[in-house]
Fold:
Amino acid sequence: MGKSRTHPGKEAVPRPMRYEELANFLQNIGKDPSRLVFEDELTGIYNRRFLLHYFQYKVNWDLPPDRPLSLIMIDLDHFKAINDHYGHPVGDQALSFLAGLLKEVSGDEGLPIRYAGDEFMILLPRSNREAAIRMGERLLQRVHAEPLTIRQAGEIQLWITLSMGIACAPEDAQTGRGLIQRADTALYYAKKQGRNRMADAGTVPAAEVSAKTALYQLQGENLAGGKEQLAQVSQCLQSFAQGKSHFILVEGGSGMGKSTFLETIRRNLLRDKSLRQVKVTGSIQEMFRPYYLATKFLVEILNEREDKGAGALAELTPQEMAHLGQILPHVGEAASGPPPPEDENASREGLFNTLVHFLPKVVERQPLALLIDDLQFADEASLFLLRHVILRGQIPLFLCCTVAEPMPIILEGHRVPLDGFYKAHHQELSIQRIRLLPLTAPDIAEHLQKMFPRVKVPENFEKDLEKITQGNPLFLGEILCKLVLDQKITLSGQEWVIEPLAREDLPNSLESIIRQKIRGLDEDSRQLLYRASAFGEDVPLSLLTGSSKIMESKVLEFVDQAVSQGLMKFDFQVNDQSLRFRGKRILEIMEEEIQPEEKRNLHDQVGQYQETLFQKFLVPSAAPLIYHFRRASNLDKVKAYEQFERVQSLKVFNPAEAFNYSGERRRELPPPGDPLDPESLAQIPALIKSLLTAMRNIQLYPLGSDTVILGNRQVREAIELHTPKRGAAAR
Structure:
């Protein structure tokens, strides 16, 4: 039992608190919980999800020297040859055999992990470099002492060898991602030196691993150019620190670095502990469903709270809990008893008003920095909510969002709400537009120095890149990645060097680079890449794995390959990896590579898979099902789910009413008074005419336009004209 709440004239009612269920719901929404496990399904030891969760929630990365953390990264040498010669069942035996050795050697000191495919790790909390080296040596001795016995046409003894890389925090890295990269770089060096050995990141010669180091640098969120635009954002942040709200739109074409710009702002804001910060992404698959974007950032905020929002929810009335439950179902289940009945209009306004008051409460009245990628996909209800929060001024709100350029007007057959919202409210909200410009040769020169300190470049190299890429940062990054892989960018002593290039060394288009990378993948990886593209620009790993019906370790091998090729990037969010294509243009090129029939089949498979999650209340709406089944030409399901979604959407939001929402918490209505006097009754037809005119204006003109405002004012004046007479009659 949780807290109880007393209402006037009523006894205190015990209130069942289901916040454990709520926390579980918040962590699993939009994911496949059957895949959110911390154990490798083949070997039974910990998996990558456990490692990333441990890094995120168990490690204080401000580690003092006397509290080290070490990581041993391990690769089973020539594993592909074992699979090819003996078959995959023997390959699985070899992996399980190695996992057993890791458990034996690590004992109570370390945590054995299968990272992906034939890559393993031992995580050593509270162990320094010397302890990690000793454990690595014990593992090498152990694997040299005992062969794997294969029972296949008699007994065969298979001797395996290992390559290992060791890295330690805080000396080698100060983040989980950095520690993995340093250990992987040391492993790369051990394999390069002949395998069957161990390498220490602290002693690896930089020139020998320059290609690996350069690729990791290029995979990072490194902003090219944008100094002037960042300065504009910085000015807004200064006044935000003084309590002023801001609404910023960052515009740019495909590949211009909008997401990287937003990520740069996010990293800068992390230093300020006095504010709450949340980053979410708009999704075309949600088809502008009312409040989907608000639900996204509310879920992120609730997840960041230690109590998952239990304290803020406990302060809501049963009616407000019921309202919130319309977009967060498990919240509604926590209410004590059924709420008082109300009509649909009152219910819609009640939900809106509850959200207006709940958002400041759930961030504990702290300033909120809300970063939204792809705001062109935002729904109208969420935009109106954000407008109201800014105008009420209960909390300072820093709203920084990226928008495609040019801003679309029609998407998926729907008018884009942001277009009308901006036209109606940009002056009222002082919306500031910042445009990302193409890179110039000096921008490119500065970026090269940031990526490759003291780099020596061929004559006119920056100007050539400016001309070829047209200043597009995504294209520039892909060219640099290609030059590293082609060993045209190398480390010589302490200096990076870009060799003189022939014209054919520089590709003519981004498309040619991406298509070459796609065709260079093996068939299994290419199919997983196509499946990922069907999910869209962002895809949780659990959904990709669940829909493909492939072991997660195999999917992770593909992920690592796609990341190393510069096609995708990943992040870890609440027990799941989030995969994202490095640019919308890469996703578009990917879709162009898929044959029409194959594309329809992929969308049908993804739609059916998400349909099963929807039936388990793990997908918040039917909108993604409509999106996929429409592309699969499954028109019967499209029609059924569109009808369902229309009904659900109208329950929570009606744009014709939204402009008149007060944002005030609903009070008890007074009892009905006396009837109107005859003079007032005679004016009712004129009042109805004013109402009909106002409703027609709302349908024909943008909300907030002079015509709509005038019509609303005339209705209000007509009502106020007769209210005193009604009161006088009552007296």
Observations:
- Residues 1-17, 725-731 have pLDDT under 50 and may be disordered.
- The CA atoms of residues 105 and 138 lie 7 Å apart.
- Residues 441-508 form one domain.
